[in-house]
Amino acid sequence: MSPKRYDVAVVGGGPAGLCAGLWLARYLHTVVVIDSGDPRNWETRGINGYLGHQGIRAPELRAIGREECTKYGVDFVTGVVDTAVNETGELFAACLRDGTTIEANRILLAIGIKDYWPDIAGLERCYGETVHVCPDCDGYETRDKKTIVVGSGRKAVGLALALATWTSKIVICTNGEKPDMNQALLDKLKVLNIPVLEAPIQRAVSEASEIVGIELEGAMSLDCERLYFARLQRFDLICELLGARLVTGGHILQRDDLRRAEAGDPPEHPLAADRGRRSALHLLDPARGRANLRLSGLVRKDRVAKC
Q1: Which strand (E) or helix (H) includes residue 173?
Q2: What is the span of the domain harbouring residue 79?
Q3: What is the pTM of this model?
Q4: What is the mean pLDDT of each run of 10 residues along the chain (307 residues)?
Q5: Are residues 109 and 191 in the same domain?
Q6: Number of structural domains found in the chain
Q7: Rounded to an integer, what distance in angstroms lies between the CA atom of residue 146 and that of residue 55?
């Protein structure tokens, strides 16, 4: 039996992918959302700043989104897309890890990004409660808290400066790496009295899900109430399989023969959902009617990967 053919296959079932699927279905397109079930925000205790949903847990938000999509006929498939083939310039075949093949006229990627965790024992017990990656999402809850930023270079400095909106009690720990900070960055930290420690972190100390400190090499310890890590983030391998070129930092270089659907890169749920909506609308071409869809997501007009 030949695989079912959809107008659009959305890869990724977070807020961006669900919002994209909802809007595409409302435009009378047949849509399937392919989701691995392994979201970036797997342990987020509550989503902040989402109008009408303040404090909602991520699984609850996704469940509401799935229910709304289902009302408009969106199908859901659990699986991981390993490769994708575009044989004709119009029809894509998404090959899942379990051997399933899904055909679609267009693919929209809403896979977001992956965080590379620092190698620190005990972080997983606090992640999403008192250990975070996003100051926009969790900065308000950090106000006046003793806060450690784990990372190096411009990314760590940027995170520390952002957190200075809410607290003046900040220390950067490079976890054994070189600081990689030029004098201009160091001067900014000096103005805010933010020290930089290079010693490797041996473990995070916590009570239940509350971080209370870190232990560093050399019998040194630091008290803290919040910890943020500024680590490398990158898009999933499927982007490369679809012909996208990744550059420094793991982000996508947009080229003339690629269109980037800005559906999943922001960590903030409201922004992710809005970008999913805008990507879905970009995929449509109202001037040519329902049958035509623009090339969107990260897809090429030629054969892009072997199944």
Answers
A1: strand 170-173
A2: 5-114+233-288
A3: 0.76
A4: 83 90 94 87 71 82 94 95 78 89 89 76 89 91 97 95 98 96 97 97 94 95 95 58 51 39 46 73 57 40 29
A5: no
A6: 2
A7: 23
